[in-house]
Design a protein that fits this description.
10% strand, 39 helices
């Protein structure tokens, strides 16, 4: 068995790292790995690192142990596992400890195939830049294959195209933090007092959404008469677990007085979702317990206090904006949401005596001015008299490049090296010198989420946008390589300040994957980044996450973010999504031409928006051919690259558009005739879907079905032209809405060889039996056993997995069918979170309508009826369950 001898110093380092990271391993194991003489067994560590179901803490400890060994075997073991973020951090540590060994072993690994090689290449590039003199000295001694890779990396960076300092803005040459700072004595105004009182300002539909926010509270059921439980609550005899349930569901006149002294601490660990129904039920009366919990759980309480206008809330939000990251992001949302009303609450503190309260209020007002302009803040200050107005003017006149700096400037992280990042070009074509890039990195480091350092605006003015975006992506990837250290999380935010549509395409899959990698908080930050980029593509991807991502908490956060953006534009989330569909550069006919110089091809789209290619004679090809020797090389290469990018972009858009249209059909969404023409008939991409569907236009109580021809003309069931007025109500009707015409439309679509993007005319239709319609149970599906994978497939059709119960088991599936209306399926034995193969089959024990999803128990009553639901919705529910229980 191979062993490595360690020096006394190395043994001390190794033992210390084990003590810090190796949880759950006894002294005997430690002795096996490293004895008192400093002898350790590398194969043992390698074997244990590969052990199945190894926990993150143990993996970190084993990787840390390997990083301490002065052996090629240990270092190579880390290289072989570089794809794991925990191992990657320790590999970087081993490279710093053994720099020559790193040169020798990283170089050949960087030439291998696969994604891991790109990671190794990035690490090697950074390593050579940090150890260039050493790399040059040992280059003759490296193996030939390693030297061949390392030698080009040792070459000094080409500075011939660097811009002269005189061509750069001052903030990139002599930024304020490089000189002593002087500040004017702030003016203090006494006697200014913010108005007392609490007001709740809801967005449209927000209160009802909060009332039905899914958590264990919405599924809570009274196990005794509610009046009895309220009595217990007021006497102090109620178990704390049931307190929120009684407060939400009990009679307001009896339970509200209890809120004045309740601290809520028994439930604050369950997150904001638990308290949203409480706020929706009691509004102002719910604020006292939230304020008591706020110092202990700022992130959750900041979210729950978003609708409140109260000076105590304003002060908390200002403090969190100044001090905290997660709660600070929500505080900024609160500030921008309430605008001048928020300023009115904060002006007295901002002009008051020096101290933490004034500093926080000043920062909040500056952030508000930066986002919404100064008028709201000036108006609010004027209400407190001329003294307050003058003090605020002094505040606003302070140089933002100075006022935005923290008291202590951050130190650059060892892994950030401006020499290895993508070069930034000015608008003139010159490159940004390395010292200026260092200043830019400092600006990024002092920026806060939603509040970039003001100097970044000047950088954007003089730099080429595409190179800034590439620089930000390179910096972000460096951060991911080293394990995403929290202290440098600003590298993620930098994507929002400099990112473009290419950034959106690269970041969105990462955001979608992060919750499954234990990085939910990073995924939430990523949503803010997409919103900050703000392009149509970014908002479209954000909307896609809000509709289709397997992590429910992330989906809900994305829905909230989209609602914020839509609210600012005076739209609903779906109306915003309608307007975000990109045209992808297609022509007025919804096609594009690929020009190879000697050959031209036309790109069209089928019923699923899959692109297809036709040659000049109209023949359909399997794919766009590669450029040939007779084609114009440069033009053809660029055109093929554009086509491949188009395919990628359409793939990202298509599934969401088909899903949205199908949902619009089921939900009965409508548009005006003018909106229909703009969003569907004339849109270069969506028109390909619109032409394959049956639409309905109504006016003055009469409606007619129609389709859209390739020429963009509306035609009825007889194929006669039809005019749709601008003020007509246009819908995408469910087949139940035009059942008498289904045969006619099926024949017409077949005659024109039109394949629909989803079943409409040929959609299965179901109706409940008379017994089912009069009740709340669907007993025909109860007792059926189905594969868990097929059950999970229902999530694509709007079904939700239940909240994990004891031992992390999800005991129900549900689909929302209206306000306080859910179809719930009780599962047996239930789905174990993260271990789907533990119970590969699930039995549908009970299927019933309920006000809230939750567990089922015997002896309960069922007040709801299927007869009260929309027949279209009932048909869809029955279709889902029929397909679930009858597939082979």
């Amino acid at each position: 068995m191979l062993a490595c001898s360690l020096t006394a110093d190395q043994t001390a380092v190794f033992g210390g790292r084990l003590d810090l990271g190796w949880r759950g391993w006894g002294a005997a194991t430690v002795a096996t790995v490293a004895d008192g003489t400093g002898t350790a067994t590398v194969p043992f560590l390698v074997t244990e690192t590969d052990r199945q179901y190894l926990g993150a803490d143990d993996l970190k400890a084993f990787a840390a142990a390997l990083a301490a060994f002065p052996s090629d075997e240990a270092f190579q073991a880390l290289v072989d596992r570089v794809g794991d973020k925990h191992v990657r951090v320790e590999l970087a540590e081993a490279a710093r400890r053994f720099p020559v060994r790193a040169l020798r072993l990283l170089a050949p690994a960087s030439r291998a195939a696969g994604a891991d090689a790109a990671l190794v290449r990035r690490m090697l590039t950074r390593h050579v830049a940090a150890h260039r003199p050493l790399a040059l000295a040992v280059l003759p001694e490296l193996p030939a294959d390693a030297a061949e890779v390392v030698e080009p990396l040792t070459r000094a960076q080409d500075t011939s195209e660097d811009a002269p300092l005189a061509a750069l803005p001052d903030v990139l040459v002599t930024p304020p933090w490089t000189a002593p700072r002087t500040t004017a004595r702030p003016r203090v105004v006494t006697g200014a007092t913010a108005l007392d009182g609490t007001r709740v300002s809801w967005r449209d539909g927000e209160r009802s959404a909060w009332a039905t926010t899914e958590s264990w509270v919405t599924g809570w059921q009274a196990y005794e008469p509610l009046d009895v439980l309220v009595d217990k609550l007021l006497r102090g005899d109620l178990h704390p677990w049931h307190t929120v349930g009684v407060l939400v569901n009990g009679p307001a006149d009896r339970v509200r007085p209890f809120l004045a002294d309740w601290d809520g601490m028994d439930h604050c660990y369950d997150g904001a979702e638990v308290f949203k129904p409480l706020v929706a039920a009691h509004e102002e009366a719910a604020l006292p317990p939230l304020l008591r919990m706020a110092p202990h759980h700022p992130a959750a309480m900041a979210e729950v206090m978003l609708p409140f206008l109260d000076v105590r809330v304003a002060r908390l939000m200002a403090q969190w904006l100044h001090r905290l990251k997660t709660a600070g992001r929500t505080a900024r949302t609160w500030l921008l949401r309430h605008g001048a009303d928020a300023a009115r609450l904060l002006v007295p503190d901002a002009v008051g005596a020096a101290g933490a309260g004034r500093t926080a209020a000043e920062g909040a007002l500056r952030a508000l001015v930066a986002a919404q302009g100064p008028e709201g803040v000036r108006t609010a200050a004027g209400e407190y008299g001329p003294g307050a107005a003058e003090a605020v003017e002094q505040l606003l006149a302070t140089d933002p490049l100075v006022s935005a700096l923290p008291a202590r400037m951050p130190q650059p992280a060892a892994w950030i090296d401006p020499r290895v990042l993508p070069r930034i070009r000015l608008g003139t074509g010159a490159t940004l010198p390395v010292p200026a890039v260092s200043h830019l990195l400092t600006m990024l480091a002092v920026s806060k989420p939603g509040a970039p350092y003001p100097g970044l605006d000047r950088v954007r003015e003089v730099c080429e946008p595409g190179s800034l975006a590439a620089f930000a992506r390179g910096l972000f990837e460096e951060w991911r390589v080293v394990g995403m250290p929290p202290k440098e999380a600003w590298t993620l935010q930098a994507l929002g300040w400099f990112g473009d549509d290419e950034t959106v395409r690269a970041l969105t899959p990462v955001i979608r994957a992060w919750p499954g990698e234990g990085a939910h908080h990073r995924a939430v930050e990523g949503l803010d980044v997409l919103a900050a980029i703000g392009t149509d593509s970014a908002l479209l991807h954000l909307h896609g996450i809000s509709q289709r991502v397997r992590f429910k908490a992330l989906r809900q956060r994305a829905q909230e973010k989209i609602a914020e953006v839509a609210d600012e534009l005076g739209l609903t989330a779906e109306q915003l999504a309608d307007r975000l569909v990109p045209d992808l550069g297609l022509d007025a006919e919804g096609a594009t031409t690929v020009d190879y110089g000697t050959r031209r091809f036309t790109v069209g789209f089928d019923e699923a928006l899959r692109p297809f290619v036709r040659d000049a004679e109209g023949r359909r090809l399997k794919d766009l051919p590669k450029p040939g020797v007779r084609d114009e090389k440069e033009l053809a290469t660029a055109e093929r690259k554009r086509f491949l990018a188009l395919k990628k972009d359409v793939r990202a858009v298509a599934a969401d558009q088909v899903r949205r249209l199908e949902a619009a059909m089921v939900d009965g969404r409508s548009w005006t005739g003018a909106e229909f023409r703009q969003l569907f008939v004339e849109h270069p991409l969506v028109r390909h879907l619109a032409r394959r569907l049956v639409w309905s236009a109504g006016r003055d109580g009469a409606a007619v079905t129609f389709r859209v021809t390739p020429a963009g003309v509306c035609a009825d069931a007889r194929d006669e032209p039809l005019t749709v007025a601008d003020d007509a109500t246009v819908t995408l009707p469910h087949p139940l809405r035009f059942a008498g015409e289904l045969g006619v439309w099926a024949e017409l679509l077949a005659d024109h060889e039109l394949v629909q993007p989803f079943p409409q005319v040929a959609r299965p239709l179901h109706a409940p039996s008379a017994e089912e319609a009069a009740g709340a149970r669907l007993t025909r599906f109860e007792g059926v056993t189905v594969p868990v994978g097929r059950l999970l497939g229902l999530q694509k059709r709007g079904w939700e997995r239940g909240v994990p119960q004891d031992a992390g088991v999800e005991r129900w599936f549900s689909r929302r069918v209206g306000p306080e209306r859910h179809l719930v399926v009780q599962l047996e034995p239930g789905i174990a979170v993260g271990v789907l193969d533990e119970a590969p089959e699930q039995t549908l024990r009970t299927v019933w309508l309920d006000a809230h999803p939750g567990d089922h128990w015997e002896g309960r009553t069922y007040p709801l009826r299927f007869a009260d639901l929309d027949p279209v919705l009932v048909s869809e529910l029955l279709t889902d369950l029929t397909e679930l229980t009858t597939q082979n």
